[in-house]
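This part of the workshop introduces the protein records we will be handling. A learned vocabulary of local backbone shapes supplies the integers on the structure line. Getting from the letters to the tokens is the skill we practise here. As an example, a complete record with its sequence and its structure tokens follows.
=====
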Amino acid sequence: MRILAFEFACGGMGGEEIDFPNSVLVEGFSMLKLIVDNLKNSGHEVITTLDSRVRVKPKINADSVIEIEPAAGDILLEKLAMIVDSGRIDYVFPIAPDPELVEIVKFFRLRGVDVIASDSGALETAADKWKTHNCLKGKVKMPKTELLGKGNFEFPVILKPKDGVACEGLFKIDDYDAFPNLKNNEDYLIQEFIDGIHASVIVCSNGENAISLSLNKQNIEFGGESHYRGGIVPFEHPLKENAFEAAKKAVESIRGLKGCVGVDLVLAEEDVFVIEINPRITTSMIALHIASGFNVAEASLNSLSCRMPDPPNFNKTIEFRHVVDAKENLWAGPIRYGNLTGSDSIGLEIKEI
């Protein structure tokens, strides 16, 4: 198969006016590297694109890397469509934040291009945390959640956008004085804060049936605005089987979710609370691959024809985190726009623990 794999941030899809933070670049490039390597290991021919401004070490292992000038999303999608039309591409494998992924998948499917992604309706549901909450309510245990301005909550609470990713725009609020100034309250949710261990489960689904693959610990730094700092894969916990069952049930409740997806959870003292579903490739899937050899890309491709993977066999435990100004021993990076020298270059460190 000839497959075009590309990633939103390091593929120039934000336009030339947007310089993504280097932490976003390294996460994006790391996921792209995972998918390219997985597809190559399965015998596929892989074409990818990189923003002409991005400088990264080591280079990516695609058969063809096309440097592309950054452009607004719709303009760049037309450029990618030209690559598909001229390159006899069998599949497109996009990696992007949830809202952008919805539009990218629609764009290519309207042109008759096969896309390695969930069904469009399922993507739209999972990309909107409010829709997801309403879809899963009564099926799995979830924190109390309302649109901002509705409902009564006791502090602390979580405040987050309906379409945020990776703790983007997420706040832990301890009192009324800590509420940030928001441009549009209607775009935000307020959620009961659940005390416990923040975790995720990687799930593979064929649109109807799902299998939980790994429980992962998330390192989240709560403050004003919160930050996702990495994690551990796999993570052993007494509630592991409960987490597996909750994640499987959550994914199967949104018909049409396909491939490898992530389910964020909180492991409380006795219960598992489902927080949200990430209908896309996530950083923890890199650690899943390194810890077990599991081929994330091939499992996602096979899910389109209803084939399900065997559970992974773990032979190590992996910790991953962002490191600033690191020069070696990185799985991906350092990466930045332009010259690689400077204290703000960043990489993804992955180590066995």
